[in-house]
Amino acid sequence: MNKREEILSRLEDKFASIGQDTDVHLEGLVWAKPITYWDYIQTDLLLNLQVQRTTLPDEMIFIMYHQVNELLFKMALWEANQLTAMPQTSAAVFAEKIGRMSRYFDVLSSSFTIMSQGMDYEQYLKFRNTLTPASGFQSAQYRMVEFASTDVELLADARFRSTINKDTPVEEAYEHLYWHAAGKDYTTGKKSTLIRLFEERYKETFLRQIAAYKGTNIWARYQAMPEGEKNDPALVAAMRHYDHTVNISWVMAHYHAAAAYLDRESKKEVEGTGGSDWKKYMHPRYQRRIFFPGLWSAQELADWGTNV
Description:
This protein is mostly helical.
């Protein structure tokens, strides 16, 4: 059997398995247009997704940069969801998936100079006022990456973390997530418009995801691995790199980019877009977000986020 016959045989097997006529599909190829880069990537659609709210040119940089971030978050989620869906996997495959996710966040970490050095300060202070109450805080995909990465109790506000555990009802755990510190009064329960609008759009999705990832998130999958696989040095290194990159390197790059505009030249501190108390929930030394605490020494845990 030559190469063409082999391909035809495989096609016949494929289409027979779904009750399709191979000849019909082959004839369809006769009339099909050749694929082009711009059609495959949907370039025209992609390049028309940037819609400014002002006439200030640097707003376009702000929009495009955040859209790139969302694409990288989607790439990380793509890998995370494959990994969490695997009933069993080897240390090598696990490390490869984690390594991919780390590379996406490495790119995010190194890209913040686009924000901190690539926009005119006066323009930013003008166009940001048209964005209220929207904020990058409202990136649902980033929250989904967190849910996919670790147990929800490890994402609880540091002030209440000791009261949240694996048996805590999903909605109660959700109400104590660390990022509520950006706009929730825990005494009254009142939430800012920033959080209220975010929850109107995504809360039900978040609750479903928290429940779905219980016992299947990356940290849970890792802990369930056989000891020989779990202690693989390359896997441990990959897990630690990912944890540090997401929860310190990327967060601090974001923090410093925000500070470049919001705390510039020791002027009076400006609120984050949407009115968020950005320092209290962003800086790792406040919330001490750690996806994989069992992979760090007691001293490393104690020093988390303090030397950045």
